[in-house]
Every structure is written in C-alpha cells, then in structure tokens.
Design brief:
The structure is a single chain. The chain is mainly alpha-helical and about 220 residues long. The chain is about 80% helix and about 0% strand. The chain is elongated, with a radius of gyration of 26 Å. Helix 1 packs across helix 3. It is built from 9 helices and no strands. The longest helix is centred in the last third of the chain and has 36 residues.
C-alpha cells in the first residue's frame, strides 16, 4: 500500500494538469473501490501475493483521491484563509478516520460473532471466543478443540470480507457522486494558460518598453 501511495504522490500533479481534478478524484475512488471489492474475494487459502496486488492498487487509489481532493479544496480558498482551511481539513480527516474505524470495526465484530460456531461451549467461553480470534485460539488450546480455532479464523475472514465489500461499495458510490456532482474544471493551468496568452502581447510590450513612454 505504501508503494501505491508513493506512486500516486509522484503522478498526481501531472494527471491533474492533463485531465483535471474531478477526473483524477473519480479515478482514484474507482481504483479504491475496485481494490476493496477484489480484496473482499480473498480467503484463507490465498497467499500474500493476492493481498499485495490489491493493497498496492488501494494505495494508488487513496493517493490519487485524497491528495487531489485536499489540494482542490485548499486552492479555492483565499490565501488569508488557507491556514484555517488546512486545519479544518485535518480535523475532518481525523474525525472521519475515527468514525470509519468505529463503524467498520463494529461491522467486523458483528460479522465475526455471527459466523463463529461456538456449539458445545459454555456461555462464558462462547462470549469470550466471540470477542476476538486471539481469545478463541486460547480457548481452543485450553479445551483441546482445534476445530474452534479453525472456525474462528474462518469467521474472521468472513468478517473482513463483509467489511471490504461494504467499503468497496461506498468507494464506488463516492466515485459516481464525484463524477456527477463535483463542479467541472478544466485541467490545471488551462485557464491560466489562456490568461497568459491574452496578456502575452501586453506583457511583451511592457518588457520591451513602450516607445511612446521611452520618448517622453
């Protein structure tokens, strides 16, 4: 994922210059959603190679969408309010991250408990096993029930599948929303290039010196 983020940080600015911020954010969210949906198909028999692929794509999508979105938000502010805007964005990122962790963590815990087979365990042991995979493994060792440990691992993979699937659908929906609702803007530098072209003769005249002014 870090490699994907580094690659996105390198190529985000040229992409924004070429195709515009809205297209880059949409592309990033689409890659993010595709990576999460692909990751949701991972099971316990898959090696790390599969995870490395979708985590790398995930990093690219995160970099393209987050970096461009933050820059696009700040560039619309006057210089005097840039500090306030940056602080607000950082606050929103922190709050959003905390809310997302809480929501998806609750979803993972619920899916894990719902898929865990605790048949034959006492109520207390079943409650402990439903709290985490580590607790379930400990109970399996204590009770001499390796099947419980295997069931806990399978239930955890199921919970992660649910989380990744929901997160992927949210990312795809966000990509559609950005593509449909974000104000269109030309590639970065397009307007500036037009203004420079219009101001070019005047600027060149000023640089060369106006003959009428030099004669006075």
């Amino acid at each position: 994922m870090v490699l994907g983020l580094l690659a996105a940080a390198r190529f985000t600015e040229p992409l924004v210059t070429r195709i515009g911020a809205r297209a880059v954010i949409t592309l990033g969210l689409a890659l993010l959603g595709a990576a999460l949906l692909f990751g949701s198909r991972t099971d316990g028999s898959d090696g790390y190679g599969r995870a490395a692929i979708w985590l790398t794509v995930l990093g690219v999508g995160m970099g393209l969408s987050l970096i461009t979105a933050q820059s696009s938000a700040l560039i619309t502010l006057p210089p005097a309010r840039a500090g306030v805007g940056s602080g607000l964005l950082q606050t929103l990122r922190q709050v959003g991250g905390a809310v997302g962790i809480a929501a998806f963590g609750s979803l993972l815990a619920g899916a894990y408990r719902g898929a865990l087979d605790t048949g034959g365990l006492s109520a207390g042991a079943a409650h402990r096993a439903g709290k985490s995979v580590v607790a379930a493994d400990a109970i399996a060792r204590e009770a001499g029930r390796p099947a419980l440990g295997a069931a806990a691992h399978t239930a955890y993979v199921h919970g992660m599948t649910v989380v990744l699937l929901v997160a992927g659908l949210v990312a795809v929906g966000s990509a559609v929303l950005v593509a449909a609702r974000m104000p269109a803007a030309g590639p970065a530098g397009g307007d500036a290039g037009g203004d420079a072209a219009e101001a070019g003769p005047a600027a060149r005249a000023a640089d060369a010196g106006d003959p009428r002014q030099s004669g006075t």
